[in-house]
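Hello Y.,

Per our agreement to keep a running log of every chain we model this quarter, I'm adding this entry. I've kept the format consistent with earlier entries: sequence first, then predicted structure.
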Amino acid sequence: MPSLDPAVAELRRAVRAVLVEGTDAVVVGLSGGADSLALAAAVAFEAPRAGVAAAAVVVDHGLQAASAEVATRAAEQARGLGLAAEVVRVDVAPGAAGPEAAARSARRAALRDAARRRGASAVLLAHTLDDQAETVLLGLARGSGATSLAGMAPLLADDGITWVRPLLAVRRATTRAACAAAGLAPWDDPHNADPAFSRVRVRRTVLPVLEAELGPGIAEALARTAEQLREDADAFAAMIDETIEDIVEPAEAGIAVSVAALAANPPALRHRIIRHVVASEFSASLTRTQTLEIARLVTDWSGQGPIDLPGCRARRVGRLIEFTASGSGI
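Predicted structure for the entry above:
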């Protein structure tokens, strides 16, 4: 009996770990690239052995020439592996966040809808350790804080669907090796070589320079950093959940937070509570500068006026910091 290729074995182990008892059906997000094709092959092997129904869904964004042909070919390869497969065409509406974000949003909605149609509780995504390292570096460049540096979560429950990334400990080179060993021909997205995209510049220039100057293992170190910061973020989230109900109260057209309770917390937790209140109540994200300005209403109060924020306004009223919706007239 021929020995199993190490890359194929690694992919199968990663998939086997997420097909836990109670998983009834899963959907694999398939682009036709090496990462998602290797994931689909591993799922096609492991899912029947775990008693899990599995299907591949190819989302055609229609943003490139011959995208329909690429999607059809990816679906055919999935069927050749033994997976049910479908192609979903989506319209990508331009948005302020740019075409990448718009495409990602459309793709996520399509995968969620496909999972619901198929009665699947989970969508499997093919992000690798290299993707995680790139995400951490991009977050670091933006100065967007520990939450961003925590990178992509291996599991994320959202609106009845669990998004699963089984390959976050697997290198991109391994997925290519697994495809080669299985005789699969992945599609190379030309966008992945276009230096107009910041992620491509990180992948093709920044990470190789770091490896050359600082030594090998940079990608793994960045991924470990993300894992440690996710642990910290989860701990902070649990602390906020435990305390938030005791320190907030309704306010006209918004919500109010106790000044004394905020002052009693260390800055890291105080700032997270402020961001949590604004995000949960007004669906808005605060910058570091905005967060610190609100915190000054607690720690450095000298009668300053209201602070205009995305979707809301913050002001100090006696013992409370009030957050009210923009345009409420308060």
